[in-house]
Amino acid sequence: MNDFINIQKNHFHRIGNRTSGDKVIWATVVLLALVSLLVVYSSTGLLAYRYNKGNTEIYLFKQVMFITIGVAIIYFAHRVNYTLYSKWSRILFLISIPLLIWTLFYGVRLNEGSRWIRLPIINLTFQTSDLAKLALFMYLGRMLSRRQDVIKDFRKGFVPVIIPVLVTCALVAPANLSTALLIGSTSLLLMFIGRVSMKHIGATVGIAAIPVVILVFIAMGYYDKEEGKCKDLPAILEVGRMPTWIKRVQNFVYASKQSDKEENYQVNQAKIAIAKGGLIGLGPGNSEQRNFLPHPYSDFIYAIIIEEYGMIGGMFIIFIYLVFLYRSIRIFKRCPYAFGAFLALGLSFTLVIQALINMAVNVNLFPVTGVTLPLVSMGGSSFLFTCLAIGIILSVARNVEQEAEGREA
Q1: pLDDT in tens, 252-275
Q2: Residue 192, Cβ neighbours under 10 Å: how many?
Q3: CA-to-CA distance for 168 and 367, rounded, in angstroms?
Q4: Is the same domain home to 134 and 162?
Q5: For residue 331, which of 381, 394, 260, 256 has the smallest C-alpha distance?
Q6: 3-class secondary-structure state, position 125
Q7: Is residue 163 in a domain?
């Protein structure tokens, strides 16, 4: 028996030695995974009742499977030397563009938007925007690191960097405007850190803001304040997801004036969940709004966290993401090579900004989007690509540690 215990100890010791990188980031991954298990299990009761005859354990096992696969992805991705991601970035980016085009025209359609493609044989769907986002930030890190000598020049520095961003956002936006805005804003932030000229960034922000401002004015112009609902839209605006975008802006701006409360049903239910949670919450598994709130296991999982664990639990989740961002910035400062620094910072920024947007939607500080809470929402392709991004960040951290140890030796 003692021999068996010693063998197991040696086995885990070897795994621990091979698991390197930033230990604090590893700890944040473990904490978020544990929170995910608790909250997904709690929030899938109605879903289980509808589709699995009340068997809630099936979604718990599914989440355990996704977390297991995700941790394996993180482990193997962090063992790869991050310089190889620079070599693969161009190939992945060139693959992602035709995939986005295919998704736009032939993907799985839901709510007038086509975001997924179905993989043959295994019959699973995944969002091509997740792959495109990851590939873009890898490629953007490569471009910024290689063009630092001419980064202030418009033709030689700015144009080659901004074109991949514009192409990706243009292909993602028709089906998923919120993700396109997330990609664009994170890319501009990374360019700012990469010493791109402020006048070029400012001009890009100004041009990109024009369609957003137009959308807001259209939404306000086609809202009947007396009846508290949207006016009939002309045929030219009944294209793609334009009616959905207009309605979401109207719901956000005129929420208190709407006569039809069903228009703002999601946000209202999230507010009820937050109000019930109070300071310390109702306790694990005691959520009541999970039976009324649409998608409590994905888009609105943060409202369930506050309902069950209170404002204390909600603040703890924010703290974890901020710690993750702080440690990633620390990696950026310590990394001796520009590509690794930009890569770690770009991927960490997009994950944390996505988390903040999801939480802002849940507390009604931002219009409703389809953005999930990274590493917490119920598993899917987004969960696995998030794990891959974290693995790449840890790969940079592992290399930084090895460089530091080499200098000390």
Answers
A1: 877 766 555 556 788 888 889 999
A2: 12
A3: 23
A4: yes
A5: 394
A6: strand
A7: yes
Q: Which of 221, 241, 273 is the last residue of a domain?
A: 221
Q: What is the pLDDT of residues 13-68, one digit of tens each?
A: 444 455 677 899 999 999 999 999 999 988 887 777 776 666 777 888 889 999 99
Q: What is the mean pLDDT of residues 100-128?
A: 73
Dig out the tokens for 121 from the structure: 């044989």
Structure tokens at 275: 């109000």
- 57-67 exposure pattern, b = at least 16 Cβ within 10 A, e = fewer: eebbeebbebb
CA distance 409 to 397: 18
Amino acid, res. 278: G
Q: Which of 221, 236, 251 is the last residue of a domain?
A: 221
Q: What are the residue ranges of helices labelled H in 173-300?
A: 177-193, 198-221, 242-253, 265-277
Q: What are the start-end ranges of the E strands in 35-139?
A: 108-110, 113-118, 125-127
**Residues 63, 88 within the same domain:** no
Q: Which amino acid is at 324?
A: F
* Radius of gyration of the chain, Cα coordinates, nearest whole angstrom: 22
Helix (H) or strand (E) holding 118: strand 113-118
**Which of 83, 26, 145, 142 is CA-nearest to residue 399?**
83
Global pTM value: 0.88
Identify whether residues 294 and 362 lie together within a single domain.
Answer: yes
Q: Is residue 177 part of a domain?
A: yes
Spatial separation of the C-alpha atoms in residues 258 and 268, rounded to whole Å: 12
Q: Which domain holds residue 405?
A: 29-79+262-335+346-409
- Cα 358 to Cα 381: distance, rounded to the nearest angstrom: 17
Indicate if 270 and 194 belong to the same structural domain: no
Number of separate domains in the chain: 2
Same domain for 198 and 270, yes or no, is no
Position 255 in a domain: no
Task: Name the residue among 321, 346, 323 with its Cα closest to residue 396.
Answer: 346
